UniProtKB/TrEMBL annotation:
This is Phosphoesterase. It comes from the Bacteria. Coiled coil: none annotated. InterPro entries: 2H_phosphoesterase_YjcG-like, Cyclic_Pdiesterase.
Amino acid sequence: MGTVTLGVSIAVPEPYGSFLQGKRAGFGDPAAHGIPTHITLLPPTEADAGALPAIEAHLAEVAAAFRPFPLRLEGTDTFRPLSPVVYVKVAEGEAGCTALQAAIRAASGPCARELAFPYHPHVTVAHGIADEAMDRAQSGLADFRATWTIGGFGLYQQGDDAVWRLEREYPFRQTTALPRQADLSRPPAPTS
């Protein structure tokens, strides 16, 4: 069956999702158009394709245990020099994001894994580009603000073309529809 590369994240809804994706592209980040604007809960993780049903069941179980919570993005920061990333900060909702990612990566579940760095929820707006462009991203979005209520998360799969595609959404208990980025249309994943 082979392996797949999966990620789990909270989508940044409109109008903020498209705005930040456009800014990321404008800073010269070539990954901007292949990655919907998001807050990572499970970073890119290689999994056996046969494990997908168990992973999906686990994610549904995690989502059912959570309730919607407020989230606020405000200002920018960077992981430099440790990692070449500029991001928009999560100013409210960090505890909810941290609890979610811990439940998703639980040692007893099919998504168990260690992280290279301690979990720090954020929205990447520049990654691995020239320092001057990173500086421009950090200063250019320093006044950015956005608030909304988190009502669930999504499972994404990366195609051979490096584009991330939404596979399935997992609303929390008492959530009927998830806010998301408007243009999640992506060309179908290439078949090998």
